[in-house]
């Protein structure tokens, strides 16, 4: 039981997962209690945050479910989105419920042995069509963040095996999808849907850092370590220039 105001509620552990995770069932709806007593699920490297909770929320987020913000999107404001549209830049949104494991390090001795966490995602028929239209028209798809990148790449590879939808676009189309995404992207991966990436500066040994290394390394596919070396060199320059890292930090645009 949890002793809460206005009274205790029952809690049952119905499943146990890796890393101390638990799935629980409550004896009554707790949404109101969470809104009243819950705390913002900040990353472990932010020990104190007394500011506006809205600062840790993207301006375009809609469905609830993430345990963390897709931080590359924190750089966008309504005014910036308006300016982009006025300049003819297309814009669409997709859904990924970021899990707590996103902050965890890769602990396997061999990167390929790491078991990536699963996160629920959705790419609607309309959004898939918009992404595919960009390729058909000779444009470029710029993903805002590693979260969007994982969803789009999953929907250009793995998802097509479980969905009968096949667009007309011959060059690696993305397909509509709703379900769990478990694509682990690391150096050697061939990107199929994303042409450019806007992303923050990430934690050491994180799967996010490996994804960005893979993206940077496309320029030299014969050397699997080239992307990591180039990225770490970029990080050193960012440190020397006083760039800020992690969730509320600066971003880098990779074209």
UniProtKB/TrEMBL annotation:
GO terms for molecular function: S-adenosylmethionine:tRNA ribosyltransferase-isomerase activity. GO terms for biological process: tRNA queuosine(34) biosynthetic process. Pfam families: Queuosine_synth. The keyword Transferase applies. SUPFAM superfamilies: QueA-like. Keywords: Cytoplasm, Isomerase, Queuosine biosynthesis, S-adenosyl-L-methionine, Transferase. The keyword Cytoplasm applies. Signal peptide: none annotated. InterPro entries: QueA, QueA_dom1, QueA_dom2, QueA_sf. This is tRNA preQ1(34) S-adenosylmethionine ribosyltransferase-isomerase QueA. It comes from Caldilineaceae bacterium SB0664_bin_27.
């Amino acid at each position: 039981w949890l002793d809460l105001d206005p009274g205790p509620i029952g809690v049952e552990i119905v499943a146990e997962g890796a890393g101390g995770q638990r799935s629980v069932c409550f004896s009554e709806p707790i949404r109101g209690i969470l809104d009243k007593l819950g705390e913002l699920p900040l990353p472990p490297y932010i020990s104190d945050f007394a500011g506006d909770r809205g600062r840790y929320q993207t301006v375009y987020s809609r469905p609830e479910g993430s345990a963390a913000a897709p931080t590359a999107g924190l750089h966008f404001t309504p005014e910036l989105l308006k300016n982009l549209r006025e300049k003819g830049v297309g814009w669409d949104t997709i859904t990924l419920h970021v899990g707590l494991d996103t902050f965890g390090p890769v602990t396997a001795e061999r990167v390929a042995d790491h078991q990536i966490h699963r996160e629920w995602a959705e790419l609607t028929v309309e959004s898939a069509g918009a992404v595919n239209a960009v390729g058909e028209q000779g444009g470029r798809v710029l993903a805002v963040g590693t979260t969007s990148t994982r969803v789009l790449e999953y929907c250009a590879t793995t998802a097509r095996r479980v969905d009968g939808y096949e667009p007309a676009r011959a060059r690696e189309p993305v397909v509509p999808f709703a379900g769990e995404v478990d694509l682990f992207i690391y150096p050697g991966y061939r990107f199929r849907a994303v042409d450019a990436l806007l992303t923050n500066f990430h934690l050491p040994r994180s799967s996010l850092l490996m994804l960005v290394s893979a993206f940077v390394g496309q320029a030299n596919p014969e050397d699997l370590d080239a992307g990591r070396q180039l990225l770490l060199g970029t990080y050193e320059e960012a440190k020397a220039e006083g760039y800020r890292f992690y969730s509320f930090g600066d971003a880098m645009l990779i074209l």
